[in-house]
Design a protein that fits this description.
- The complex is a heterodimer of chains A (248) and B (291).
- With 248 residues, chain A is an alpha/beta fold.
- In chain A, the strands form two sheets. Chain A has a six-stranded mixed beta sheet, sandwiched between helices. A four-stranded antiparallel beta sheet of chain A has the order 2-1-4-5, covered by helices on one side.
- In chain A, a hairpin with a 2-residue loop joins strand 4 and strand 5.
- Chain B is mainly α and 291 residues long.
- Chain B has two domains: 38 residues; 223 residues, MetI-like (MetI-like fold).
- The chains are: A alpha/beta (248), B mainly alpha (291).
- The structure holds adenosine-5'-triphosphate and magnesium ion.
């Protein structure tokens, strides 16, 4: 059984079709990478899974989108987004304290118990491998952290709502190599508890961290297979060209 | 060609000097006349006496009644306009379609373009009688009605500036909030409004100083009885109304009575000056938050 699944997914931004007949199934507790040249629809597909595209005017969406075999359009959208968390390309902490950033998700569901919130904030920061660096400065503004720390804070913020899926759209593209490797280690850890889908332009990164890789081109899913196979023995010529760096 | 450019530059400098000189002139006259006033009336008296009766035979020069009238009408206006103006701003920014916002904002700004004398008349002839149906003991001249009408007048200031600063909040923050399962309402009031708070505060400060200085509406509908009261049902006189009353009346120019308006004017100026500095400070302090 798949954790996330689309069947014949199509999406239009106005007249422009960004996703064409995409059917893909994502297994639980795995890391799946979406790769492909810029503009091929990776982010668009990712944003379908938590219905973030609903926020954009003039989009038309067709096809089936399933979370745990339930149509996500039959679910309450706010509940869906609590189960399917998202980490964005650029770190986007709220202009609040470190603590309040992580507590945000708990507060919006009406969390009032101070000790419980404190415990969950701590746990989430530990899960995001940030606790040691921010313990003791939790009341400082989140924007005073470095870019890499901010991104891990955003991950902690997402983990705090206890999602089962975490979508990451190029989470390390704005970061230095050390922060990037911290995030990669983190993703590896998180796989134990979460299902992770990550968009990346970094082939080595996809090869290092993901179980499966999907290659997209001009809105179509060209190939989807185990990561080893995708990088060593892809079936499609375009995949071959892309992963070896001959185009894209 | 060179000389022409030079000439243009000189002209421009002259233009900016006109405004600087005007400001300096106003402050100078205000100060000089106020100093003269305080050579005859003690400043302690001015700030502690609870009566203001310079035009009567038994003279008192306590600014407090005028100040309370000014603050009362301003407070009513602000209490009415800030929540409403902010809610409209949030609605336009978070709920309404961009096309609707583009359509409504200019219309709203027309509210600020209505001559204040029209507002004053509206307060006296329509709002007060209507309020009297609900509050029977409301005086014909009162602080409440012009306060509310002044509130309507300043709503566009608050809405327009607040909406601008809400719009300047990076998209990514909104997405982060929605991405965590927050509702529109939660996103608007827990993320967007706090993130735009510096702009919102500036808008409120500007609205306050606009209300403090507003003359026509209160002169028409609040009455001309300096009274130290915070009861909105009663008639009050604001600093601005008093200044109009004296400068339009037949008080001799070099009398102490006439000098009272400078002391009163300077008091008002001190308040608006502090508010302007505050808004300037807020703006420069938070300007680069997202850069
Ligand atoms: N909000 C939008 N309105 C209109 N068109 C859009 C919008 N977002 C994306 N598109 C278009 O849809 C297509 C797919 O975009 P998408 O962002 O999914 O690509 P991507 O694979 O994530 O690219 P990148 O690697 O550059 O992030 C692109 O052609 C893009 O121009
Ligand atoms: Mg993208």
């Amino acid at each position: 059984m798949f954790k996330l699944e689309t069947r014949n997914a199509n999406l239009w931004y106005g007249e422009k079709q960004a996703l064409k007949n995409i059917s893909i199934g994502i297994e639980p507790n795995s890391v799946t990478s979406f790769i492909g040249p810029s503009g091929c629809g990776k982010s668009t597909l990712l944003r379908c899974f938590n219905r973030m595209n609903d926020l954009i005017e003039n989009t038309k969406i067709k096809g089936e989108f399933l979370l745990d075999n339930t149509d996500i359009y039959d679910m309450d959208v706010y509940e869906l987004r609590k189960k399917v968390g998202m980490v964005f390309q650029k770190p986007n902490p709220f202009p609040k304290s470190i603590f309040e950033n992580v507590a945000y998700g708990l507060r919006i569901v009406g969390g009032k118990d101070r000790n419980e919130i404190k415990d969950k904030v701590e746990l989430s920061l530990k899960n995001a491998a940030l606790w040691d660096e921010v313990n003791g400065i939790l009341n400082k503004p989140a924007l005073s952290l470095s870019g890499g720390q901010q991104q891990r804070l955003c991950i902690a913020r997402t983990l705090a709502i206890e999602p089962t899926v975490v979508l990451m759209d190029e989470p390390a593209s704005a970061l230095d190599p050390i922060s990037t490797s911290k995030i990669e280690d983190l993703i590896y850890e998180l796989k134990q508890k979460f299902t992770i889908v990550i968009v990346t332009h970094n082939m080595q990164q996809a090869a290092r961290i993901s179980n499966k890789t999907a290659f997209f081109y001009l809105g179509e899913l060209i190939e989807f297979d185990n990561t080893d196979k995708m990088f060593t023995n892809p079936q499609n010529e375009r995949t071959q060209n892309y992963v070896t760096g001959r185009f894209g | 060609m060179r000389r022409k450019e030079k000439l243009i530059e000189v002209l421009m400098i002259c233009c900016s000097f006109v405004t600087i000189l005007t400001t300096a002139g106003i402050i100078l006259i205000l100060t000089v006349e106020t100093v003269k006033f305080f050579s005859e009336v003690s400043i302690i008296h001015f700030v502690t006496d609870t009566q203001w009766t310079p035009l009567f035979t038994e003279k008192h020069y306590g600014i407090l009644p005028l100040l309370s009238g000014t603050l009362l009408t301003t407070t009513i206006a602000i209490l009415f306009a800030v929540p409403l103006g902010l809610i409209i701003a949030v609605y336009l920014n978070e709920y309404a379609s961009p096309r609707f916002t583009a359509f409504v904002k200019p219309i709203l700004e027309v509210l600020a373009a209505i001559p204040t004398v029209v507002y004053g008349f509206f307060a006296l002839q329509f709002v007060t009688p209507s309020l009297q149906k609900i509050i029977p003991d409301l005086n014909g001249f009162n602080a409440l009605s012009p306060g509310l009408v002044m509130g309507v007048m300043i709503i566009p200031y608050i809405t327009s500036l607040s909406e601008d600063s809400l719009r300047a909040v990076p998209r990514s923050l909104r997405e982060a909030s929605y991405g965590m399962g927050a509702t529109r309402f939660q996103t608007a009031f827990r993320v967007m409004v706090p993130a735009a708070s510096s702009g919102i505060i500036v808008s409120v400060i500007l609205a306050v100083s606009r209300a403090l200085g507003e003359t026509m509406i209160v002169a028409i509908a609040a009455g001309q009885q300096p009274k130290l009261t915070f009861n909105p049902k009663e008639s009050v006189e604001t600093i601005t109304t008093y200044i109009v009353q004296v400068s339009m009346g037949d008080v001799p120019q070099d009398s102490l009575e006439f000098k009272t308006i400078f002391a009163a004017g300077l008091t008002l100026f001190v308040f608006t000056f502090i508010l302007n500095s505050l808004s300037y400070w807020t703006r420069s302090r938070f300007q680069n938050k997202y850069e």
